[in-house]
Amino acid sequence: MNQTIDRNQIEQLVRNALRGGGPSATPATGKSASAGGISPPGWIDGQPNLRVSISARHVHLTDEHVETLFGAGSVLEPDKDLYQDGFYAAKQTVMVVGPRRRMLPNVRVLGPTRNFSQVELALTDSISLGIDAPIRHSGKIEGTPGCVLVGPAGTVQLDQGVIRAARHVHMNFSDADHFGVKNGDMMQLKIKSHDCSVVFEDVLVRADEAAKLEVHIDTDEGNACNLDAACEVELRKDDCNCKH
Amino acid sequence: MNQTIDRNQIEQLVRNALRGGGPSATPATGKSASAGGISPPGWIDGQPNLRVSISARHVHLTDEHVETLFGAGSVLEPDKDLYQDGFYAAKQTVMVVGPRRRMLPNVRVLGPTRNFSQVELALTDSISLGIDAPIRHSGKIEGTPGCVLVGPAGTVQLDQGVIRAARHVHMNFSDADHFGVKNGDMMQLKIKSHDCSVVFEDVLVRADEAAKLEVHIDTDEGNACNLDAACEVELRKDDCNCKH
Fold first, then answer.
1. What is the pTM (predicted TM-score) of this model?
2. Which of A202, A240, A242 sits opposite B195 (nearest CB)?
3. Is the CB of B223 less than 8 angstroms away from the CB of A196?
4. Interchain CB contact of A186 with B (< 8 Å)
5. Closest residue by Cα to residue B196 from A189, A33, A151
6. Which residues of chain B lie closer than 8 angstroms to A240, CB-CB?
7. What's the first-to-final CA gap in chain B, in angstroms?
8. Interface ipTM above 0.90
9. Is B12 contained in some domain?
10. Please, which pLDDT band fits residue A36 given cuts at 50, 70 and 90?
11. Distance in angstroms (rounded) separating the CA atoms of residues A154 and B240
12. Are B173 and B198 part of one and the same domain?
């Protein structure tokens, strides 16, 4: 993970050096931008750099549940860094078991651990599990269905926490300034893809100091617009006044 | 099937009778509308009646392939009528086998039979099968991947025909007149759904004499917008001049 951060920082420093070390081409704004020309997290050449990522089904766990599932003293072992600094796919997976003994055998655990455990599925997953998971934003799990998690060392009964994660966009405050939006606003994401272009509405802005500009959609959404073959992506403020 | 047609016709006749047998409230146009006030197929109260249907994965077969898969002399047995008159889900299913012996065990056959066999999958299905199925409109199968179909009486090797069906809208000529579109045009379908509204672009118009107004999307698309819980659907001409 540190390697990735370093590589990005070095890349940015080299770019700035090649430009003469001055400020970015587009005046950087927002709290993350320093006066010395270091761009906000994720920016390239003084501009936000939009990334759209598909979140496959995954699980977040508490420290306590990690120990129950993988054995006393166990901790999550990072396997692959995610784009957002500090987050990773762990080596560990769990089995998610639904109410009628239908199950998903190997669901990836994402780290770091959290204060509550949560299972994030696409609708296709939730249908195959037989769980009627509601669309929720991460953390809003009151009243959601539970499930059973099975690990090599034990099982956990979740009373709630199975959701379909609502689409959202991570960004830092400089990105938010760039788009003229603030935390909690809704945006639209247009995916131009041959024979299957889509406009996703209801994209929630989740802005903080350190995030890099990244939209998270689930596998159903990514497959509906064939994201891997998309020729253009555009994130825009939801402020069109036309009838559309 | 005839039962359904009769029921619809009777319903329409009763509606017209209650209105005094005169023409529809909105003047009916197009070739399917008779002067006697019988509405075009699928219309209710003199208006098009939009239906949005999810096409789950399915197979179309030739007469010859039906006999190979289900035994000499076999024909498709209608199990459930589809919304479009004359089309049905058959009692028969086949196993679809991909290149690495991954398979979908029970894929429904739709009738009536066709001049070529074709397998229609969602992208999620094609990933699980390990077949890189391209997005195509029905019938445009040149150069697409093949697969093996397995039935109770035999197997069929398809050299081509595995596609992801591109989204489209069936309509009759009166519907087309109503929307100001013609066969081959593209439309947009807006699905308003809590926290996951979507605008599907690239919806191909397939207009003929007898069709009822019905958009076909696949399971990935239906799940991406939670179609079952949608609060509003709108089909519109793709003619917006705004930046969106």
1. 0.82
2. A202
3. no
4. no
5. A189
6. 242-244
7. 43
8. no
9. no
10. low
11. 56
12. yes
